[in-house]
Structure to design on (472 residues):
C-alpha cells in the first residue's frame, strides 16, 4: 500500500512501455521509516526498490493468434494540446485483426467538448455507435465507430461512470457515480441518443435506493442478457441494487462488502458478482432470490503479518472491473493494489489463479479470439499497455495454462495514428474502460449484423448453447 501511494501520485513513477530495455525503478522518498515493532528502515527508497522493482521493460509482444475486430480503451490520463492538463483523456482504438493487428488505429480526444477523464464504453447493437462516459464531467458521448466523429453529447449529471445497453429495447443506461441514479436513454435511427422522458421527473432517472435510504452512488453496473434486470454496485451504501425492469422496481438490495465498485452477471442471468474495492473480495448474488451466496476473499492466500503468499498463490487487492466470461465459466478481475489479474471458477465460485498485471490494474473485458475462444483484455491506470490474456488457451475450461499472450503499447508516438487533437503528455497512460468490438456477450452477440457474425465461430455466436437471434 505504501509503495502504491508513491506510484499512483507521481506520473514519473508510472510504468512506461516505450522505455524498452530500461529497468522499471520508481523513486521513493529516501527517508528513515520506523516500523510498528520499533525497528527502523534507514532508507525507504532503497528498501522498496530492493523488494519490488528492477524488472526490465520488454518490447511489445504480439499474440500469436489474432483477435476479432477492434478494442477501444479509455486512456484517461492522456493529455492533448487543445484540452491541456485540466481535461485529460482520449479514446484509443486498436486494430486486433487483419494486416495491422495489434497496432493503434486512432486517438479520439473530443477537444471541442473537452471530454474530461473518459471512463467507460459500450457499443450499440449494430456496433455503429460507441457510447463513452466522462467520470470527472457531466456528459455521455455517442461516437461514430467507423470515423471516430462525435454524433451527440448529452449533459446528464455528476460523474457519469459506466454505460451499457438493454438487450430487448436497445435503450442506453448510464450510472451517475456522483449521484443516486441510473439515467435511461432512447436511441434514434440516426444513432443519436436522448433521455427517456417517460421516467418520473422527465430526466430519465431510475433511483437506485428507496425513499429514506442512503444515497447509493452507483458505479459499474451490469444488465441482464434478456434486458429484464440490472445490478449496480453502490459505492456509498455498501450494497447492490438488483433492479427488475418488468416491475420497474428494486427487487432486492443485498449487502456486499466495503465500497462495492463493479458488478457483472453470468450469461444466463442466474448469478451476479460484485467487486468490493476496500473489502478485497467478490460478493456472489443469487438472482432468483436476490440474496448473497458468499464473499470470495481475494487475499485468502496472503499472510498480512509475514507477507507470505500461500495456497495456490492467487492474490488480489483493491479489485475493480470483474466481468464473467461470455461462456460463463470464469470471472476475471483487475486488482489495482496488488497489480494482479485474478480468476474465479464459477462452477465452485473459488479463487483459482492470479497473474501479474501492471500498476493500477483496472479494466477487464472479453473479446473474440480468431477461430474460437476468447481473450480477456486488461487495462492499467498507471502504465501504457493493454494486456491480452489468453486465460483458457485450449478452451477446455481449465485455466492452469492461462498466460499473457501479448500486449499492445498504447503510446503511438513511434507511428502516430489519426487523431482529432495532438497528444502532448502522459502518452497512452490511464487505462480505464476497455471495449472489444464486436460485443460477444450472450444476449448482445445475437444482435450483431451478419458482417460481424461471419467472423465468429459457431460457439462464439451461441456462447451458452441456446439457439436464438439473428447471429445464428
Amino acid at each position: 500500500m505504501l509503495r502504491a501511494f508513491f506510484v499512483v501520485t507521481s506520473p514519473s513513477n508510472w510504468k512506461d512501455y516505450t522505455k524498452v530495455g530500461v529497468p522499471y525503478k520508481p523513486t521513493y522518498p529516501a527517508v528513515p521509516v520506523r516500523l510498528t515493532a520499533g525497528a527502523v528502515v534507514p532508507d525507504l527508497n532503497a528498501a522498496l526498490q530492493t523488494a519490488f522493482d528492477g524488472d526490465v521493460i520488454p518490447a511489445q509482444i504480439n499474440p500469436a493468434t489474432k483477435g476479432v475486430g477492434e478494442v477501444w480503451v479509455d486512456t484517461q490520463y492522456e493529455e492533448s494540446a487543445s484540452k491541456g492538463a485540466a481535461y485529460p483523456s482520449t479514446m484509443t482504438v486498436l486494430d486486433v485483426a487483419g494486416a495491422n493487428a495489434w497496432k493503434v488505429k486512432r486517438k479520439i480526444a473530443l477537444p471541442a467538448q473537452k471530454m474530461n477523464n473518459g471512463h467507460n464504453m459500450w457499443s450499440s447493437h449494430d456496433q455503429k455507435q460507441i457510447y463513452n462516459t466522462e467520470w470527472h464531467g457531466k456528459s455521455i458521448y455517442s461516437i461514430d465507430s467507423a470515423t471516430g466523429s462525435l454524433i451527440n453529447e448529452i449533459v446528464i449529471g455528476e460523474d457519469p461512470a459506466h454505460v451499457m445497453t438493454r438487450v430487448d429495447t436497445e435503450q442506453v443506461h448510464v450510472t451517475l457515480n456522483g449521484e443516486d441514479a441510473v439515467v435511461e436513454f432512447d436511441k434514434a435511427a440516426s444513432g443519436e441518443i436522448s433521455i427517456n422522458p417517460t421516467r418520473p421527473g422527465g430526466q430519465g432517472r431510475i433511483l437506485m435506493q428507496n425513499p429514506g435510504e442512503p444515497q447509493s452512488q452507483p458505479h459499474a453496473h451490469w444488465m441482464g442478457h434478456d434486458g429484464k434486470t440490472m445490478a449496480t454496485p453502490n459505492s456509498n451504501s455498501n450494497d447492490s441494487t438488483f433492479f427488475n425492469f418488468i416491475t420497474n422496481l428494486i427487487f432486492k438490495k443485498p449487502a456486499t462488502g466495503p465500497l462495492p465498485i463493479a458488478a457483472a452477471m453470468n450469461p444466463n442471468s442466474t448469478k451476479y458478482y460484485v467487486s468490493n474495492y476496500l473489502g478485497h473480495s467478490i460478493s456472489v448474488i443469487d438472482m432468483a432470490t436476490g440474496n448473497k451466496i458468499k464473499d470470495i476473499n481475494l487475499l485468502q492466500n496472503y499472510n498480512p503479518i509475514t507477507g507470505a503468499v500461500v495456497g495456490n498463490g492467487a492474490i488480489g487487492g483493491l479489485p475493480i472491473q470483474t466481468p464473467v466470461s461470455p461462456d460463463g465459466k470464469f470471472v476475471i478481475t483487475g486488482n489495482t493494489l496488488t497489480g494482479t489479474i485474478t480468476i474465479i471458477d464459477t462452477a465452485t465460485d473459488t479463487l483459482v489463479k492470479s497473474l501479474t498485471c501492471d500498476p493500477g490494474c483496472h479494466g477487464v473485458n472479453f473479446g473474440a479470439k480468431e477461430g474460437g475462444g476468447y481473450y480477456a483484455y486488461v487495462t492499467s491506470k498507471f502504465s501504457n499497455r493493454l494486456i491480452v490474456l489468453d486465460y483458457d488457451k485450449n478452451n477446455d475450461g481449465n485455466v492452469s495454462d492461462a498466460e499473457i499472450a501479448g500486449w499492445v503499447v498504447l503510446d503511438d508516438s513511434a507511428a502516430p495514428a489519426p487523431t482529432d487533437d495532438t497528444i502532448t503528455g502522459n502518452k497512452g497512460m490511464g487505462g480505464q474502460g476497455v471495449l472489444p468490438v464486436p460485443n460477444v456477450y450472450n444476449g448482445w452477440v445475437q444482435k450483431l449484423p451478419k458482417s460481424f457474425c461471419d467472423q465468429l465461430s459457431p460457439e462464439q455466436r451461441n456462447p451458452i448453447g441456446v439457439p436464438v437471434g439473428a447471429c445464428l
Observations:
- Residues 302 and 309 are 5 Å apart (CA to CA).
- The chain has a mean pLDDT of 96.
- The two ends are 48 Å apart (CA to CA).
